Each structure stands twice: as structure tokens, then as C-alpha cells.
Amino acid sequence: MKNRFSLIAAVAIVVLFAACSKSSTTPVVVPSYSSTQTLTVNFSTATPYAFFGFKDSSLVANTDSATAKWDFGLRFTTFLVNSNASGPGNAGVIMQDGVFANLTSAPATGYAYDTTSTKLAIKDGSWYDYNPLSHAFVPKAGKVFFFRSADGTHYAKMQLLAVDYLPFTGPTPVKLSYKFQYVYQPSGSTNF
Amino acid sequence: MVSFTKIALSFVCHITLLQHCLTKPWQFTELIGEILHHRNQMKKNQYILFCFFNLLFLQINAQTRVFKDTLNGSSEEVVVTANRSERKMGNVAVPTSLINKNTITKTGSLQLQNILSEQTGIVIVNSALGTSLNGYPNPFGQGVQMLGLDPAYTAILLDGEPLVGRNAGILKLGRIATGNIKQVEIVKGPSSSLYGSEAMAGVINIITEMPVKETLGLQLHNASNNTWGGTINYANKFNKTGVQFFLNRLSSDGYDLDPNVYGKTVDPSREWNGHLKITQEISNKLQLLVSLRNYDARQDNNYQIYYQNLPAIVSGYTTEKDQSAFTQLKYNVSPTSKIYFRGFYDRYSNESFVNLVSSGLRFDETSFVQSVLKPEVQYEKNRVGKSQYVAGFGANFEMIDASRYAGKQQLTTGYAFTQKEWYLMQQKLTLIAGVRLDKRNDFAMHASPRIAVAYKPNSQWKFTASAGLGFKAPDFRHMYLNFYNAQIGYSLLGTSILWPELQKMQKEGLLAAGADISPYANQQELKPETSLGVHLGAKYTGKKLIAEWGIFRDDIKNLIDVYALPFTRSNGLPIYSYQNINSVFTEGAEMDLKYRLTSHWSISGGYQFLLAKDKQVLQNIDQGLLYKRDPVTLQSSLVSRQDYYGLANRSKNTANFKLLYEDNQHGWDTYFRAVYRGQFGFMDKNGNNIIDNPSEMTEGYWMLNIAASKSIGQALRVQIGAENLLNYTNPIQLPNIPGRTYFININYNINQPTKHKSNKL
Questions:
Q1: pLDDT digits (tens, 9 = 90+) for B266-288
Q2: Regarding predicted confidence, which is higher, B44 or B298?
Q3: For B412-556, where are the alpha helices, taking DSSP H only?
């Protein structure tokens, strides 16, 4: 039912836009999609990754790890980007310093891939400070990730807001909770 | 009491002005602007009041000169640390302060750190590492922060000789008993020109009593937390031989600040402290001094760990031993010159273990032994009223052998120093120039010069200026530490063992796959940390009022700090090592006022304003490279200079206030002290590794202590007191502070050498 409803909605939107474009000559600005998400990630390096897709704003099942449905994966503090060594996709990433809201367009080129399993696009330790006092992995302030999606044609900007331990009993934590914010541009434009 | 109020108000005004002026002490034009701005901010009538109190203060200053009342002239006290030879306190040109036996006795405290913390400009701080062990015993203890520098940068001397056995840079002050201290001398500012490495921020020299005549002192101490102390102090002089014997035992049940965490915050402990001194006049030209010390402490360890992923209780204990022997031969070459031959040996050991209570299996054990052997020759020449000269040479043979270090390590340092002091303009002007050379086996020669000037236009005023270079050589831990934290899983490796250890770890598969260790094959050796310190001071000594002002600035280069390697262990956790990274500065101002109200009442107060910042951080802020995350919205924005509070663990404002009542006729005295430590940065929480948000701070707090004593007859004195009257506690960030405690001291002294001398605050 839900699918049918969204199909109807999509058709309606297309019709609406089609109608609009007839009456106006200026190019259509497709609104980008903003969201804040929390992703629960395994702590142990012997456990599966959590995969995330920007387009559907959802967790992607592990059975789909060999598809282009996901854009990035996370386990402990290791990011995978759906490319070369990590997946069949054509995703890439660029890390930039700046204020999230002020960075309004993604770079056209220069996206990094996961070249090999030990040479990943996002270097471990590049985006956080480990605090040996509190054992916290504090995301560095002012770091913005620009992603090219796994289909190679869409762009998103993302920033990490917080990384917390989920409550655990025993000596080692089991899960980390990643809170992040992103803007996805469904039109394929690099502007947000 | 009227003048008391005046002084107090005026004091507050002065603090405001001082603090405001010194926000930017090096930019004169801005300083003027600040003052004008300050005036504009105040309402007009407030400003008039402000001026009024400042005038009033000067008025009181002027008045006091007329009074004939006596205030024990602290300028006549003799100190040895500032120039490595005896000087009258009033004549020293470098910033020096003194705590005498009388003051120590009046506080009733058996803790050296409590006594030091009541001094202006001295803050007792925790090792930042200590707090990582929430619920676990903190093995690092507390140390002295002077001029805003960490405890590792202040030399702690006992009778002029440096003690060894620092843990993470901190020398446990509890190793030094207070019962036989004659005086504590504190020299602020780079003192490497006389004392070498470690004396970058300054020197604290604890001087113990010398046998003068027959005395016997007994003390029984009882305090909260089932604390018991017993002291015997005996001295005698037989013809040409002097003997001084001191023995102290202290035990405590410790305390628990957080019942939700298993185990006590501070576990039960007991310690013995013995000191024997023998002096012998061999001839009228030759004097021998032998000093033997033994410290033996044992503290329980009892806490919860995880064993095979299940909580388990471990228990055991830590044994600390500190034994030193000192021999000095003093040869009076002529009435104006003498030579000292000295030999000092100190050995510190710390052995710790815990067993699993359930099975008795050894869970963890560590050991640490450090020793130093230090032969030295010193020459002094005094041309009365013209000049004084001091020079010497010696060597340090240091050894360390510890479970956390890669094997037994040795370092040898040879050194020589020379200093001359000239008295000019009818002795109104004192000029000092000195330099020390240090050559450690693994470093190039290092020179530390110092110059100082003192100008005394009259008997009331003294103006001083001093500048010096300080240095601190990388210590054993920076070079040889080989530490793997089994609880958390990270590694910390000294620079000298980094390459071989990385190779070993890679071979054993302990490094993350693909780690490139090759850049560490020819890693640069650590350089010594160096500093340039400048101090300007003024001192007024009146009949009733003694006032002292000072401003200081210290620039430190090549500060050694921990950094994370770009790859991790196979468990994903970091590997740390040491690097010369930072350039920091500390600057500030301090003020001390002592005022005799009546023949019975005296008050004093002190204040320090301090700024301590990292130069790289300031540069990054200026270039717009440093961001902060708002703790509520979690959004990032640029950090401004105003946001940056400064280095962690430093309080901008510290102050103390003391009130002494003394009635020698009836044998009463009461000593009240209030010590304030202003807010300080604790740890970064918002992703930029600097302190820039209130959530990263520890709030300021007051320690209020009081002691009162009454002499009964000739020999007996009973003292009662309370420490931390406000019952301030902070279990996580300041676990070293117990709540409110009470104590009673019963003293029995026969032929007391200093019996209720006049007050010195």
C-alpha cells in the first residue's frame, strides 16, 4: 500500500513539475533532502559493518553488501565507502574543513576510493580524537564529508554530530551510536 | 576592625585593576585602552569609589610608616635556594618566598602539599592521567604547578638535593614529613642556571632542622578517617658533635567519595619516615655533615576489574621506599671563602601487585626503581659589601629499572655552574649574572644563563627584575617507556624504543594490517624543552604592612607531548609516542599583602592571575582553522580568541586569605586560611582538543582551614583544627580532596628552641 501511495505521489509531483515547466523557462530547482540519523554500529572488529544509503535514508541489510544500495559502511571507527575494495559501487568521499551550513556545493572531482582494504578513503583516526581519559571518540569539530553516492551520480554532504557508547555490561563496549546529519541532493546537482 | 575592612575592600579593587591591566601586559597602548574601557564600564559613582579605595590604600601605606609597632622583619630571614648560598631574604633579587616552621606549626598540617597550596602562586594539581582511572587507585598523585607549568617542571629539593622517583612527572610530596622542617624556600622562575634540568618553573627546597642544642619533641596526631600520627624529634649537641633524630609514623584508613564504585577512593595506608643527621666539627676549618633518610610506605590496593569478561575483585598493596644518604664536608679556606664537597645518593622504589581475591592468582604487578648518585664540589667567595661568588661542578648518575621500561637504563650528566653577585651604589643595587652548563651523555651541551637586578632606594622599597633560560631534558619515560594498557588496550612507547617495538609488534601481528612503520626507522630524537622566563617585582616593607607585586612571563619551546601514530594496534586502538610539539606561554601577575592589625591580629592575602596558552592554537584560531561544536545544537562553528580559555588544569584566578590571632602571654593562637582555586579546564569535549566551552571546565572552589592551639605550662601544647570546612568534594576530577576533616595534635616539647616567636604569616 505504502509503495503504491508513494508511486501516486511521485506521479503527481512529476505531473505538477511538468505543468510548471510549461509555464516557466527557468530551470527547476529540486529541493535537497536533509536528515539527522542515528546509526548503531558494532564495536568489535570481528563483527559485521552497518551499511547506510543516503537516497533512502536507511540502514541497508548486510545481505545487500555486494550491491550499490549503500554508500558508506561503519564498524568501530572504520568507514567503508562503496567502491573498489569495499563494494561494487562508484562511491567516493572528500573530507573538508568548514561550517556545515555554509558549504553549499560539493566538489566536482577529487573523490577518494577504498583502494584496498588497508588503504581506505577515510583514514581511521582522521575524523576523531580518542580521549584516553573518557575513552570517547570525539568527532573533530568542523569536518564535513562530501560523498558521491554509490551510483556515481548523486551527492551528499554529511557531518558527524556525536559518537556515544551504548550502555554495556562487562569490560568492553558492544555498540557505538553514531549521530550524523546530512543533506542529499536527489537531482544529481552538486549544489545543496 | 575598621582598617581591616578598608584593606579588604582596597584589596579587591586592586585585584580588579591588576587583573584587568594584565590581560594584555605586553601591549601598552591596549593596556591604557583597557583601563579607559574599564572606567567606562563602571558607573560614575562606582568609579569614584574605586579611586577612593585606591587612594585610601596609599593613605594606609603612608600611615603605616609612622607607626613604631614592630613587625618581625621577614627581610632578615636567611634563605639559601635563590643563590645556592646564604642570603638575607631582603637582599635576594629573584622571586623567593619562605614558609617558616612557625607557620607550618600553626597550620597543624602533616601534609606538605596542604602547606604549599596556601602559598600565592602555588597550585596543587592532579596528574591529568590520574583521572583516567575512575574507581581505580590513582597512582600519580598531586604535584606543584608554579607559574602555570606542570609539576614535572619544578625541582623538589630536600636540604638542597633533588629527590628522584617521579611518576608521570610528579614527585609524591607525601614522601616528605613536615615534623622536622625548618623552612620551605620557594624560588619562582627559571632556575636552571643553578639547578639544571627540572628547575624550569622554579625550585622548592625543603630544609630540615640542624642540631643546635638539646631538644626533645613528641607529637601525637589524630584526625578523621582514623588517621593516627606519632612523631619523635630529638636533637643534641655534645661538644663538637651534633645529632638530630626524627621519626614519624602516619596511618590512615583512607576515604570513599563514591559508594557506587567498588573500593575506596583512597585506600588505607601507613608510612614511616626517619631522618638522622650528624654534624661534626673536625677542626675550626672543617665541618662534616652526614644525613640519612628512610621513607617506607605501604598502601592497600583493592578494586574491581574484569577478568575473563566477568567482574572480579582484586586486592594487594603498593610498597614505596625512598632512601637517601648525604655527606657534606665544608672547608673554610679563609674567613671569606669556603669549599663544599658533597655526595648524595637517593634510591626510590615502588612495587605494586594485586591478586584475584577469588582464586589468589596474580592479576597484575609492577615495579619501579630509580636512583641517583651525585658528587659535587662548590666554592664560595664573599667580599663583604662588594661581591659574592659561587661556582661548582658535579655529575648525576641516574639509573632506572622498571617493569614498564625496556630494561635497565642509565643516564649520566656532567655539569658546572658559576654565578657572581655585585653590590653597587652603596649596596643599593645588586647585580647577578650566572650560567650553568649541562652535558648529558645523549645530548649536546646545554647552557642556561640567568641575570637579575635588585634596586633598594630605601629601607622600605625593593624593585627586582630577573630573566633566565630554563631547560628540561627529556626524561626516562619520554625515551624508554614501554606501556600497554591492558584495561583499555592502547600503547604508549618512548622514542628510543619506538622503532624496535614497532618492528616486534608488526612481526607478532599486533599492528593493524597495512601499517607503514618505515617512517619511524630514522626517527628524530627528542630535543630538550627550553624556556625563557622574565619576572619583574616590587616589594614594600613597612612597620605594619608588607606588600609584594610581581608580573611574569614564560615562553616555552619544544614542549614534549603525546601524539597518536597514524596507524593503530590490531585491536583498533591507538599507539602513542612523544614528540616536541608545542610552544606555549604563561604570563600573569601576583600580589601578596600582609598587614599587622593589632598586637594580636594579623591578616594577609594573596592573588595570582594567570594566562597559559598554546601558541599554535592561537595561530590556528587567527587563521580560521579551528572549529568548536556546540554542546546543545551539535553544530560546528569557528573558535574565536575569546572562546579559548587556555591550557587545561590552569586557573586564571587563585587567591588566599589568612587571619592570625596570637596571644603569646596566654599561649593562644588561632590561624584561619581560605584558599581559592578558580575554574580551570578539565578536558576537551567538543572535538577540537582545546578548552573553549564551560562544559569542559571544573568550577572554582574554596578550601577553608582553621587551627587553634593553647600552650599549657612550659612543655605542653594542644592544637585542634578542621580542614576543608565547606566539605567540598569532587570524586571524579579531584579525588585527592577528602571531605571535611578534623584533627587534634598534642605536642610535648622540652627546651623548645622556637617557642611562640612573633608572628610571621
A1: 899 999 999 999 999 999 999 99
A2: B298
A3: 476-480, 495-507
Q: Are residues B26 and B120 located together in one domain of the fold?
A: no
Q: How many whole angstroms separate alpha carbon A66 and alpha carbon A61?
A: 10
Does residue B169 contact residue B152 with C-beta atoms inside 8 Å?
yes
CB pairs under 8 A between A and B: 92
pLDDT digit string (tens) for B649-673? Answer: 899 999 999 999 999 899 999 999 9
Number of structural domains in chain B: 2
Which CATH number fits the domain that encloses residue B251? Answer: 2.40.170.20
> With an 8 Å Cβ cutoff, are A123 and B566 in contact?
yes
A170/B310 Cβ within 8 A: yes
Indicate whether A75 and A124 sit together in one domain: yes
Q: Specify which residues B721 forms β-bridges with.
A: B707, B743
Task: Indicate the SS3 state at residue B712.
Answer: strand
- Identify the bridge partners of residue B196 per DSSP, sorted by sequence position: none
Whether residue A50 lies inside any domain: the answer is: yes
Residue B225 backbone phi and psi in degrees, to 5: 60, 35
Residue B435 has which C-alpha cell?
650560567
Specify whether the CB–CB gap between B101 and B208 falls below 8 A.
no
Q: Are residues A160 and A145 located together in one domain of the fold? A: yes
| Whether residue A171 sits in one domain with residue A84 | yes
**b/e for B435-464, b at 16 or more Cβ within 10 A?**
bbbbebeebeebebbbebbbbbeeebebeb
Query: How many other CB atoms are there within 10 angstroms of residue B494's CB atom?
Result: 24
Q: Does residue B609 have a pLDDT over 90?
A: yes
Predicted complex ipTM: 0.81
Rounded to the nearest angstrom, the minimum Cα separation between A162 and chain B is 8
- Beta strand B491-493 with B574-596: parallel, antiparallel or unpaired? parallel
B187 close to B215: Cβ distance less than 8 angstroms? no
Kindly determine whether residue A139 and residue B687, on different chains, have CB atoms separated by under 8 Å: yes
Give the range of the structural domain holding residue B69, as residue numbers without chain letter.
Answer: 65-750
CB contact under 8 A, A119 and B637: no
Q: What is the pLDDT of residue B610?
A: 97
B415's CB contacts (< 8 A; 6+ apart) are B196, B393, B394, B395, B396, B436, B437, B438, B439
Residue owning grid cell 523557462: A25
Q: What mean pLDDT comes out for the span A79-88?
A: 93
B213 and B125 part of one domain: yes
| B227, amino acid identity | T
Nine cell digits for residue B146:
608554579
- In this predicted structure, what is the pLDDT of residue A5? 45
Please report, to the nearest 10 degrees, the dihedral formed by the alpha carbons of residues B451, B457, B461, B465 taken in order.
-20
Chain B closest CA to A56's CA: distance in Å? 24
- Compute CA B524 distance to the chain's CA centroid, rounded to the nearest angstrom: 32
Domain count, chain A: 2
**Residue B18 carries which side chain, given as an amino acid letter?**
L
Q: What is the DSSP string of B550-613?
A: EEEEEEEEEEEEEEEEEEEBTTS-EEEEEEEEEEEEEEEEEEEEEEE-SSSEEEEEEEEEEEEE
- Within a 10 A sphere around the Cβ of A64, how many other Cβ atoms? 13
**Based on the number of CB atoms within 10 Å of its own CB, is A151 exposed (0-12), middle (13-18) or buried (19 or more)?**
middle
Q: Report the alpha-carbon distance of residue B417 to residue B407 in Å, rounded.
A: 33
| Residue B467, CA atoms < 13 Å, CB-side half-sphere | 3
Does the distance separating the beta carbons of B636 and A123 come in below 8 Å?
Answer: no
B694: buried, middle or exposed (CB in 10 Å: 19+, 13-18, 0-12)?
exposed
Residue range B58-68: mean pLDDT, rounded: 35
Rounded distance between C-alpha atoms, residue B166 and residue B129, angstroms:
14
Reported residue count of chain B is 761
Q: How far apart are CA A115 and CA A123, in angstroms?
A: 12
Report the alpha-carbon distance of residue B649 to residue A64 in Å, rounded: 50
